[in-house]
Write a structure and sequence with these properties.
single chain; 387 residues; alpha+beta; four-stranded antiparallel beta sheet; 11 helices; 51% helix; globular
Length: 387
């Protein structure tokens, strides 16, 4: 068992750090204040070839695994870009994975290269306001009319829909009462036609640089050629993006937690009160030390889950656990960083209050901590299903 990064992985980490270096804490502080998609940051990553890290080489990607993608997302967040930086490119990694697995060669040739080189931006339209995590009860309908589907419905918490020109959309093609099990949902990757799609931004606690939205779809025409896989089999397709997403969110959370911990430890070393650095006091030092251990443990679970996925082995329990543990460790690290700064932790110029606001994202999304606990109780421990 080898816990060391390979030389190739070390090169990836160093390359990402170089790309992120010009986008310092003050850059992200401005983005947090002013909003606006980080176009220059996204372009820098696209120019470096990073956006296709886990996509096949045949279509312009690097052909690497989720392990390398997780390393990339962790590194972005850890530089201080946090969830603002990670979310700007997050969709490129996990969102189009169903296309990689289930798309035809023609679809991959049409869709992947523009996403990899940054010409296309995609959003991920699954969640709905009245169904939440009960994906099998989605109400957005896609009715077949000849060589097109006509789609109407609502989606919510759709990131980057303000700037996206493509959409990965899960919609119901067969009424739920006529289906068994997971049947009846179909997956599409199509153009964002704003004559049939209205996007309303949600004002939120943090991550102002990456928009979150309500999306209203009324009569959107989608060519049959934009359907991924078989009609009615979309739920199975989407599952191939869910475990990678949980792994990547876990990696991002660890990175954000480490950025906060670094600032907390630095302040504890430099801040002198009663003629001694405050970090000399165990009441300051011990919470920071505990956060280091929690982040290390969570990162090991992220790496294990990514390794299992790349080996083609079942990883649902590990992916969900990685997301849960990393989100909790991240939140505690950000909280401890603020407490270490005392009153200055409440000031925006020290950055840690921004990190704490962003730390809520991996705790809440893409799946609640309570549902993860339910999943582990049922699928791992064999306890009765509770929902």
């Amino acid at each position: 068992m080898n816990f060391a990064w390979s030389p190739e992985q070390e090169q990836i980490r160093a390359a990402i750090e170089r790309v992120c270096a010009p986008f310092d804490a003050d850059y992200w502080l401005r983005k947090d204040s002013d909003g606006g998609f980080p176009e220059d940051f996204h372009r820098a990553l696209a120019n470096s070839g990073c956006l296709g890290i886990a996509m096949p080489e045949a279509y312009g990607g690097a052909g690497l695994g989720i392990s390398e993608a997780a390393l990339m997302m962790h590194t972005i967040a850890a530089t201080g870009a946090g969830l603002s930086g990670a979310s700007a490119v997050h969709m490129n990694i996990f969102g189009l994975h169903p296309v990689v697995v289930f798309g035809s060669d023609a679809q991959k040739k049409r869709w992947l290269p523009p996403l990899i080189d940054g010409r296309d931006r995609a959003c991920f339209a699954v969640t709905e306001p009245n169904t939440g995590l009960n994906t099998l009860k989605l109400k957005t309908r896609a009715l077949r009319e000849g060589d097109h589907y006509v789609v109407s419905g609502q989606k919510v918490w759709i990131s980057t829909a303000q700037v996206a020109n493509k959409m990965l959309l899960l919609a119901r093609t067969t009424p739920v009462e006529d289906c068994a099990g997971t049947e009846g949902l179909s997956l599409f990757y199509t153009d964002v036609d704003r004559s049939a799609i209205e996007v309303r931004e949600i004002q939120k606690m943090g991550r102002k640089a990456v928009d979150s939205n309500q999306v209203f779809i009324d009569g959107l025409r989608i060519p049959v050629a934009d359907r991924i896989g078989e009609e009615g089999k979309g739920f199975g397709c989407i599952l191939h993006g869910l475990n990678p997403e949980r792994i990547l969110v876990g990696a991002e959370a660890v990175g954000l937690g480490r950025a906060a911990l670094q600032r907390g430890a630095m302040y504890a070393s430099e801040r002198v009160v009663f003629d001694r650095p405050i970090g000399q006091n165990q009441g300051i030092a011990h919470p920071l030390a505990k956060s280091w251990m929690e982040l290390e443990a969570a990162h090991l679970m992220v790496q294990k889950a990514a390794w299992l996925y790349d080996q083609g082995q079942p990883c649902a329990a590990e992916a969900n656990s990685a997301k849960y543990l990393a989100a909790e460790a991240c939140y505690h690290a950000c909280e401890n960083a603020i407490l270490t700064h005392g009153g200055m932790g409440y000031a925006k110029e020290y950055h840690v209050e921004r990190y704490l606001r962003e730390a809520w994202i991996p705790r809440l999304a893409p799946v609640s901590p309570q549902l993860i606990l339910c999943f582990i109780a049922e699928k791992v421990l064999g306890l009765p299903k509770s929902y």
